[in-house]
Amino acid sequence: MFKKLLSSIGIGAATVDTKLAKAQYVQGETVEGIVDIRGGSIEQHIDEIYLALVTTYLREIDDKKHEEKAVLARYKVSGSLTIGPNETKTIPFQFALPYDVPVTLGSSRVWLQTGLDIKMALDPQDRDHLAIEPHPLVAAFLEAARQLGFRLHHVQCEQAPRYWQRRLPFVQEFEFKPASGPFKGCLDELEAIFFLSENSVEVLLEIDRKARGLSGLFAEALDMDETFVRFTYGTGDIPALPQLLADAIQKYS
Fold first, then answer.
1. Cα–Cα distance between 208 and 34 in angstroms, integer?
2. From its phi and psi, is residue 63 left (phi > 0), alpha (psi between -120 and 50) or beta?
3. What are the structural domains, with CATH classification, of the chain?
4. 160-171: per-residue pLDDT in tens?
């Protein structure tokens, strides 16, 4: 009885360790690995073993920004099982990363949190950080922006207005500054948000024009110097992407 009570408050409990085949992935790629479970000092029944894909984003409350956690997806690794004292079990898993998983640039972080659901017990958890590289379609945009003289300045996940939200309550913003090329002196910055699917990506561009004269300064003060542009491209459009992007910016700057 005493041992059961200790177990229910997490003393002598099972431990869990997730091991990934690799640490670096591309948006949408399949993740493979194993979960190692080691029993504690007594036998325990585990209701479920799960993996949660987690990130953080900034949410504005009363004009202050607070960091919030968001579960991007949850994956069931195993159903109920019993683990004996000091027994070890290894369970393989694989799952596809969602296309809207944030790229781990700037302040963005993504990790897998492994847990055991044990009735009336403190859940042992294990956290493994992932490096998420841009999908080839997003990488092509970053390269096109670089060719036009833009420098990637800042990447951050922020709460999105309802009309921008898709599956998640936030979007990842990529902020560029014109360091050289045709748009230096014309724009203050360029921001891009990507809505990615398997074969195409919809881009929401925020083009922040540089203030010119008194009317420009007035527009800047009222945030009227910003223009939003949407366009979609696929794999076949990548060779022409620098020109497509330049035309979109030129039209509204």
1. 47
2. left
3. 2-133 (2.60.40.640), 136-252 (no CATH)
4. 887 777 889 999
